[in-house]
Amino acid sequence: MGWPADVILSGKHARLVPLEPSHADAMRDAARDGELWKLWYTNVPSPERMPAEIARRLDLKTKGSMLPFAVLDATGACAGMTSYMNVDAVSRRVEIGSTWYAKRVQRTALNTECKLMMLAHAFEALDCIAVEFRTSFLNHQSRRAIERLGAKLDGVIRSHQRHSDGSLRDTCVYSIIACEWPAVRAHLTFQLSR
Hints:
Blueprint: E1 9-10, E2 14-18, H1 24-32, H2 50-62, E3 66-73, E4 78-88, E5 93-101, H3 109-125, E6 130-136, H4 140-149, E7 152-162, E8 168-177, H5 181-193
Parallel strand pairs: 5-6
Antiparallel strand pairs: 1-2, 2-3, 3-4, 4-5, 6-8, 7-8
């Protein structure tokens, strides 16, 4: 069995379940909410590319470098995707990324709860030494959301990769390390209780 293994993470606002090809139609609808694939500074699959994106993530899962999830809202409807990615089983590090949410759930408790569940699983069940987050320097909404979690900026990788439109992307790298987890957990738990 690979590390990390499939798991279902459940909360009040969200449920993370292993991503499957059968999620494609519901994920198409979620991506249409806000036409997220049109955001040039991020990589949300278009509705017609959704089956290929799910297949890509499942291939990376087979290779041991990703554990993808379908994000379900409180009603059980698909609200987006997220993943443990760039998995380093030897050093026990993961990145939480390739995350996108339907517009209807953005800036709600759903994202906070998803990150709390994924971080808790990473630090408490997987015994990770660090959890990383990456985003485009120009994705200010994502950067603010990562910073609100309590992650710290490690640095910016200049001309790291390309945006979906082909332009060069500077990547902001953030992390939370194991010794910071208790304070981050308390902060996120407090945020959810408000």
